[in-house]
Amino acid sequence: MGNCSGAEVKTESPSHIGFASGSNSKHGSKKGTVLSGSSRRVSASSVPLTPRSEGEILSSSTSKSFTFSELRTATRNFRPDSVLGEGGFGAVFKGWIDEHSFAAAKPGTGLVIAVKKLNPESFQGHREWLTEVSYLSQLSHPNLVKLIGYCLEDEQRLLVYEFMPRGSLENHLFRSEELVLSSLSWSLRMKIALGAARGLAFLHSDKAKVIFRDFKTSNVLLDSTYNAKLSDFGLAKDGPSGSKSHVSTRVMGTYGYAAPEYLSTGHLTAKSDVYSFGVVLVELLTGQRAIDKSRPSEEHNLVEWAKPHLASNRRVIRIMDSRLQGRYSVAGAQKTAGLALQCLSMQAKRRPSMDQVVIALEQLQDAADMERTPKTEPRSSGRGGSGRAHNMPRRKISVDVGNAKVARPRLAASPLNA
User: Fold this and answer.
1) Helices H, strands E: what count in the chain?
2) Catalytic residue (choose from 81, 214, 292, 369)
3) Residue 195 contacts by C-beta under 8 Å, 6 or more apart in sequence?
């Protein structure tokens, strides 16, 4: 839930928003880069998602209960050189266990795991730990991280995941110089976006009815073939039930990604996640962070700066990530920008559902021009983007959501001024 350029929103009252500084990690988010997982999982609909007590949560979990000693051995006593990432919750350590018995194994043998260890001084704590155990031990989907086990012993709170070798989307877009220099290709960016969208769509489905509440690049982890999995369920919340249209809750999340209506009212809906997804789509297009104070003042907030560009087929090419070096489908980029703009609508009801987002991204994946590139080198527009290809035809672009084409929404006011 942390981000070195953003800030977390965590407060007891929607009328008072407090910002806690985010955290660095060298291999993922503050919750690390982990996971893939155990097959010992029950279906989403067979167990209540929010048991009433800690005892019910732990007794209903199908994940293994580790002792602290077992995890200390598996991580070589939590050695500093085993750290995969560090953030608001604490550090994440690489370890090894036997894939059958789950006993600690020698480094380099057995199943590689990532162990997230709560820092006692963290602003997060037992509630977030328990929430993650509750959801990840009961929900199973190809685009969700899978929990192997947990440890609750005295003051120790740990979570155990299968290792995700490609780390986080945040790492690939922003952190590691080596990864940044070998930037994600356009097709990989679209593959990652589709996988993450499928994960959110599953969470919003009738099988789960969960609002993720902290969708961002650091919480999208990648396996060896760049399949995306959602991680970090500490802020997840059961969606509204019955006739209710929203969940009233404390404002928590990460500044720059949180939906404007949630920030202003504390009313949480599935469309709050859709807004966050739109922010990440813009990050994928531009290669820039949602919040970055190192950029010129007018570019500090990516959504505010990018919206006018997203609304124009001509201007969107100017803000494309220059590291792509023009190797992308112009039509695909324009359609992706249109989809992002819909997700970022100031009016939640005008945002597409995640099912509709999945359909739109699948159409882009199947498009014949997915891998086409501009015929001429784009002009450089300077910082962070690339210019529009010379002589490219201007086309009116719409994005298919559901069974109909939806036009671009009219530009709304800045989300930070809502």
Assistant:
1) 12, 19
2) 214
3) 143, 227, 228, 229
Give 209's pLDDT tier (boundaries 50, 70, 90): very high
- The secondary element (H helix, E strand) that includes residue 191 is helix 186-204
pTM: 0.77
Is residue 237 domain-shared with residue 327, that is, in the same domain? yes
Asked if residues 316 and 337 have their Cβ atoms less than 8 Å apart, the reply is yes
Q: Report the Cα 112 to chain-centroid distance in Å.
A: 23
Contact 340, 281 (CB under 8 A): yes
> Is 289 within 8 Å of 224 (Cβ atoms)?
no
Residues 343 and 388 in one domain: yes
**Please, are residues 115 and 66 in contact by the beta-carbon 8 Å criterion?**
no
Write phi, then psi, for 189 (nearest 5 degrees).
-60, -40
- Pairwise CA distance, residues 146 & 168, whole Å: 15
Poorest-confidence range of 54-63, 276-285, 336-345? 54-63
Report how far Cα 51 is from the mean position of its chain's Cα atoms: 25
Does 61 share its domain with 178?
A: no
Q: Cα 406–266–355 angle (5° rounding)?
A: 30
Clarify whether 214 is annotated catalytic: yes
Task: Give the Cα separation of 183 and 175 in Å (integer).
Answer: 11
Same domain membership, residue 84 and residue 130: yes
Domain boundary among the residues 162, 180, 214 is at 162
The span from the CA of 250 to the CA of 246, in Å, is 13
Range of the domain at 336: 169-417
Structural contact between residues 329 and 373, judged by C-beta atoms closer than 8 angstroms: yes
Beta strands 7-10; 19-21: pairing state: antiparallel
CATH number of the domain enclosing 254: 1.10.510.10
Which pLDDT belongs to residue 234? 87
Lowest mean pLDDT among 1-5, 145-149, 172-176: 1-5
